[in-house]
Specification:
416 residues; mainly alpha; 13 helices; 0% strand; rod-shaped
């Protein structure tokens, strides 16, 4: 305060000037509001000034200054927290989101924005809880005095404004996920699919194996088809659950479903195709082995029957003629059996080379018996011609037609 007469500086409580003795009048005008100074040059301003008289800058009201400072501080805090959360891993963000209520409003806003940016799924419940708690956060702030006095300190003004701004920012709806999704049950689906393919492949194998052997296997097919249908039905229900669990609007989800479907189809085709191929191959080998064993047994049986009939004949032309007539059908069956063995043994030898020596010896026996069956066929034809002759002519015909054939047959036995 200054003296109006001599302009000397006076104490604030002085009523008379010490230098000139003049009476000092206390001004009745209201003091300038605290903080009513130019934001550019910091010179004092009158409340009615719209422009600074020193620098010419526009005067900003104290309330607007406080709000701008609060907004700047909130933006800087939000940017600081956002930068900090952007450097954290997704697992750390999930763990931090579980303690969302313990964070400041600005930190909550930054955390929610970072979660929404990354598209993290496991924090939907926490975010929904933050939305539900939002009105409760705003209610105490609404009870604050709506008018902020211009005489309050900047700190007092900034704190509620900053809190109110941050609370308003937290109120922005961020729909990260409408509901918490459980992981799709792919493991269960794979197990059911493999079990279904296994049971179905057993039935397909039995079907093609029986078809190759020209027989049926209804028991095995029925026992395999029933569990295959059961596991297939359970797998289909599980697949519907997968489609409901996976969000259709996400590219990764659609790609995962498509890959699972394509892989399942490939597995089914591989299982059934391999089962059909192995069933046909093994069935054919079994059929060939069964036929070979049957022909070998038949060949031995016919050879024993023919040998027994020839050894029990009496020493007369008429008895020989009757014997040849009796073994004619066996000789024909014997010849056809030997022909089948000639075709089957080379195949057996190519598939089982370890038994090559035994197979070759038996093949030699079959060749000798094949020549014998040819000689028996000629002997039967000669016996038929001898039977048509008179008794006195049969002896000469026997010597000329039958004896050479018998000697040729004896030569086969000697060449063993």
């Amino acid at each position: 305060m200054f003296c109006p007469n001599c302009s000397c500086e006076l104490p604030a409580v002085a009523k008379f000037c010490v230098k000139c003795g003049s009476r000092v009048e206390i001004p009745t005008t209201a003091p300038r509001a605290l903080g009513s100074s130019c934001m550019n040059c910091a010179k004092p301003l009158d409340p009615s000034d719209k422009f600074c008289s020193y620098c010419g800058h526009k005067v900003i009201p104290p309330q607007a200054q406080v709000e701008r400072m609060a907004s700047d501080i909130a933006a800087k805090n939000l940017e600081k927290h956002a930068k900090h959360y952007s450097q954290m891993s997704s697992d750390d963000l999930v763990r931090l989101s579980a303690e969302l209520g313990q964070l400041t409003p600005v930190a909550q806003k930054a955390l929610i924005l970072e979660i929404a940016k990354r598209g993290i799924k496991d924090t939907s419940e926490v975010l929904e809880q933050a939305k539900l708690e939002e009105p409760q956060t705003k209610q105490p702030l609404a009870e604050e005095s709506p008018v902020v006095s211009t005489h309050s300190s900047p700190t007092t003004q900034i704190a509620p404004t900053t809190q109110d701004t941050a609370s308003a920012q937290v109120a922005v709806p961020v729909d990260v996920s409408s509901q918490k999704r459980t992981p799709a049950p792919y493991a269960k689906f794979v197990v059911l699919l493999l079990l279904c393919c296994l049971c179905a492949s057993i039935g397909v194998f039995a079907l093609f194996d029986a078809f190759a052997r020209n027989t049926t296997a209804f028991a095995v097919e029925a026992l395999s088809v029933l569990p295959a249908l059961l596991f297939g039905w359970l797998g289909w229900k599980n697949w519907k659950n997968i489609l409901e669990s996976e969000p259709r609007h996400e590219v990764k989800s659609r790609r995962r479903v498509r890959n699972a479907l394509v892989t399942s189809v490939i597995f089914i085709l591989l299982y059934l195709g391999l089962a059909a191929f192995l069933g046909s191959l093994i069935g054919q080998n079994r059929a060939e082995a069964i036929q070979l064993n049957s022909d070998i047994s038949r060949q031995k049986e016919l050879a024993d029957h023919i040998s027994k009939a020839r050894n029990t004949v009496s020493n007369s032309i008429s008895s020989y003629v009757a014997m040849y007539a009796g073994i004619e059908s066996d000789v024909k069956d014997y010849s056809s059996t030997l022909l089948r063995l000639r075709e089957e043994l080379p195949k057996y030898d190519s598939k089982f080379p370890a038994q090559s020596d035994t197979t070759h010896k038996f093949m030699g026996t079959i060749e000798r018996e094949n020549r014998r069956s040819g000689l028996l066929t000629k002997q039967i034809e000669a016996a038929k011609q001898i039977a048509l002759l008179d008794e006195y002519q049969q002896g000469a015909a026997w010597k000329s037609d039958m004896i050479p054939l018998l000697k040729e047959e004896d030569a086969l036995d000697e060449s063993k």
